[in-house]
Amino acid sequence: MHNEVEISQGLYYVGGSDRRLALFENVYPLENGASYNSYLYLDEKTLLLDTVDRSVSEVFYGNLEFLLGKRKLDYLIVNHMEPDHAANIGELLLRYPDTTVVINPMAQQFLLNFFPDIKAKFLLVNEGDKLSIGKHEFTFVMAPMVHWPEVMMTYELTEAVLYSADAFGTFGALNGDIYASRRNFDLNEARRYYTNIVGKYGPQVLEVLKKALDIPIKMICPLHGPIHKGNLNPLLGAYGNWASYTPEDPEGIMIAYSSVYGDTALAADILAKKLVGRGLRDVVVYDVSKTDSSYLVSESFRVGTILLCATTYNAGVFVKMEDFLHDLANHKIMNRTIGFVENGSWAPAAKANMKRILSDLEGIDYIEESLTIASALKESQLANLDRIVESVVARLRPDEKKAEAEGGVVDMAAMFKLSYGLFTLITKDGEQDNASINNSFFQVSDKPNLVMLSVNVANMSADTIRKTGVFNISVLDETADFEIFKKFGFVSGRDKKKFEDYDRPIGRSENGLIYLRSGSNAFFSCKVVEVKEAGNHVLFIAEVTEAKTLSNVPSMTYAYYFANVKPKPLPSIKKPNASGEKKYGWRCKICGYTYENDPLPPDFVCPLCKHPATDFERVEL
Ligand code: FEO
């Protein structure tokens, strides 16, 4: 029987899913099995990308027989020689003896190790070589240590498809749908897969990501888990964080504890409540005896702060904690804040042993405050936990601490918690149409129907609205892509006529101004009734003279833009300087320009996109 899926004309998914497997690589617990992906092209020549694990051989050969019929299999591309993808090469070549194996020299050596007696025609390929099979053309990208040293990726140029081997894979069988969707893709499982299997090789993964960012990619086809297409920025961003050991949730805190009789567990729980009580809400608590180490390693890559609470055992640290920390150290994680609570009834030794196990890790900021419990936590020791909490707050909320120290009550970081929508602000001066990106437009009254717009005084739009008294607002929706933001937000109308080469659908409202018909779910035409100066901005209160709904696509928020639309610069691996001090700068949230000093002058204006200091965020350099 067969169970293939057509991806595009002449391209088929021919892999399968195994839901019986309990341990991936006989190590990592699986909650819902795994998929082993293989892809077949039927072009002038036929070509298969990788085979599958033995467990899904039957459906794999059923798919090949059904699709190939009487045709030969001309090529097999081998991207990775690990048996979960290569176990079937021997059998495949017995069934299809005319197949040419397309492989790099190191992978050929591995193949001959697994199949010493194999009879095969080989086509050896190296970085950048090309292979055409008719309408489709392939090139090869070496990806050593993602996950083994022989790994390569294959890029199909005609449809811009990256066959990424283990990269961008995830645990879990496929649920009917072969594409990543809310139901079919779990970022937590993708992270657990990546961090445990290739987490140690961040520098090598970053090298491959740099290559991937240089080529247009419409679809990523990994060897495990669903296919990714559409907006790939969130996935590439997540990989960038993991590979550079940048916390995915910098404010995330993991408390991992070991406890024999519950006393250390209670201390860990009290610590968690105190952290949440201080407003640090992204806290997770795990018992290392219960939770498999693969989940703890994955969480360690997600969070910025790891608090370890452990019992002393055999004059060392409790065995389950010891196992987890060895696992974490083997993954070479870096750039984390780590704190300790230890318990030892007569000779506490857990903290010293935990630090020893982690001693080779780079960029670790150890919290100076710690707590030693003798058997059970005492009332008098709650203050020690408070000091640990305050040390964490000081690191995660430096502005809050600074404001407290200076006797002030304005925590500037709170400003970044405000939510905003995103709009295209459109004006017209004489014959010149102009547009900019705006995040400060909202209704202030419904009787009469009044809205308010805030614009930086330096912007050309502010001058034009003062002069003409009218403007349009196109409400951007979640289909608006980064091109719209670049087009209207990154250059000034004083330097470029923004609609001169704009080839997407537009309309004109009754007032003669443009509104966007793509990437926008509504527009408003507005007539200014009052102007008020407000610092470096000018406020226009205006009546709505025309409004129209264009679609029901959700409106774009600032948060959605940063999470899903704005391409993230590929992070680098940050290593602390000799003094261990971290360096901070400020990055423009609009265009990505980085001011490499701290603090940012309050009147600073981005030299690239002219947005003010309020659009900058503090980042570690
Ligand atoms: Fe899925 Fe490295 O094999």
Structure description:
It is a single chain. The protein has about 625 residues and is of the alpha+beta class. About 25% of the residues lie in helices and about 30% in strands. Strands 1-2-7-8-9-10-11 form a seven-stranded mixed sheet. β4 and β5 form a beta hairpin. The longest helix has 15 residues, at about 265-275. The protein is flat, with a radius of gyration of 29 Å. The model has no long low-confidence stretch (mean pLDDT about 90). Bound molecules: MU-OXO-diiron. MU-OXO-diiron (FEO) binds near residues 82 and 224.
Q: Report strand order across the widest sheet.
A: 1-2-7-8-9-10-11
Low-confidence stretches: none
Q: Largest sheet, if any?
A: 7 strands, mixed
Treating each run of at least 4 consecutive H or I residues as one helix, how many helices?
16
Assembly type of the shown chains? single chain
Mean pLDDT: 92
Structural class: alpha+beta
- Can you give the helix content as a percent range? 25-40%
Bound molecules: MU-OXO-diiron
Please count the beta strands (DSSP E, at least 2 residues each): 36
Distance between the termini: 56 Å
Give the overall shape: flat
